[in-house]
Input
Amino acid sequence: MKTFKMQCKYEIIRVLRNRYFVFWSLVMPILFYYIFTNVVNTNAPDKAEWQAHYLMSMTVFSVMGSSMMTLGIRMVQERSQGWATFIRITPLSDTVYFAAQMIGQSVIHMLSITIIFIAGALINGVSLTALEWIMSGLWILLGSLPFLAIGTLIGLMKKVETAAGVSNVIYMVLAIAGGLWMPLEIMPKIMQSIGKWLPSYNFGNGAWEIIRGNMPDWRNILILIAYLAVFMLLSKYIRRKQEAV
Amino acid sequence: MNKIVSLTNVTKSFQHKTAVNDVSFTIGKGEVVAILGPNGAGKTTTISMILGLLKPSAGEIKLFNHQPHEKQVREKIGTMLQEVSVMPGLKVREILELISSYYPNPLGIQQLIELTGLTNQDLKTRAEKLSGGQKRRLSFALALAGNPELIIFDEPTVGMDITSRNRFWQTVHQMAAQGKTIIFSTHYLQEADDAAGRILLFKDGAVVADGTPAQIKSRISKQSVSFFVDPEMSLEKLYLHSEIDDIYRKNNRVYIQSSNTDRVLELIFQEKIGARDIQIERGKLEEAFEQLTSGAKEAI
Output
């Protein structure tokens, strides 16, 4: 138990000391949020709703990024620098190691969600009911699972540079095409129909529904679960192939 | 039964080559064993299998009479791998605390500092900012963190300067004196000769010699008796004795090769050949090593 706590604690410290994490997961989303709700005039019919909507978009953007990049790149780093091998020789069990990483990551996500929500409340005075704040926070926390699975896929790559490049591209494509930067409705028809099937759109849409007083769509939940299953199987399959050498 | 490590008919084949071929040996408590051999002899593969990082293709490996990957085994071993491993994002002290927490009876940080030569300044440094030598010391400290009974080093002194090397061996001897079992691989002959009580000499994936440095020397490189003698003197009489393997002249000295140098001395005086400045030379481990491993170079 002591080991587990210690492992969680240091997993969290490591993420917080990572400058890329602080920049991409906290500074960028808050900056974007400020720009797209204050500087750029978006002509939104319902200003308060747009401000809440975009706050969700940016929180989803942040958590999606740290799920894929922080986790994935760190896995590659640990493997390429021999740390993963060293850990295998210590008595630390794989279960504890994996669980601590997941818990560490979740704590980090809760922190990001809280900070960005507070930023929204301070910058634009976004006000939601307590239930809406909690529900949307929980949705974002749980909805990050398929993206963590993408993170483990990226984590299977051999070089840190490749992993960083690939994850960046996937991140940006998913964010834009999934309507996190600007609503899907203002995009061309074809983009809209593709976007609706992307995990990022379904992740975001759950939160957008919640702040409008609805529950996330079943469709959103099912699609996210399907993606989670596919990415996990894929990751397992590739790992087995890599180990077969 | 104080067997700490035992390998029985262990073979490891990769796709195109057999890295380790039918190796068997046991290592008892308190031994300091060098796995010596040229590059590509199968040292690292053998160590990886002992550590449970690789599975043997055939044969069996037991540590403390258990499988290498079992938790109770892992709690008793410490290791320093060839590749320097660091955990980015954490300070040295934090890493040491974290790894120590995995073990039931860890050594304290203070002890680790004394044993490895890490400084208090190093403790506050983030792992990724350490110099090569500092990283090596950190790896050494990590190997000792769990107060292990069996310590395994893969090419430990590569990249160490002379001071750290001396300090390293000093600590290793200290550990050995405490009854810990130590296995290290090296391709430095001198190191194996100086530090180990036993050498396992590897060549082409097999153990070609196993014994104390002295035993290996006497077995492999022949001893000889050399002396000055009047050039007119015939040495033919000596050829008649079967104990003598070879006689040759070099720099005006006569060299007589034999595994029984005492008998050679007796013969020299018996035959009254008037030998002066007699010396007995033992083969150097260096030569034995080259004799044994020279074939490997031709293969490449």
Summary: DSSP finds eleven helices and no strands in chain A.
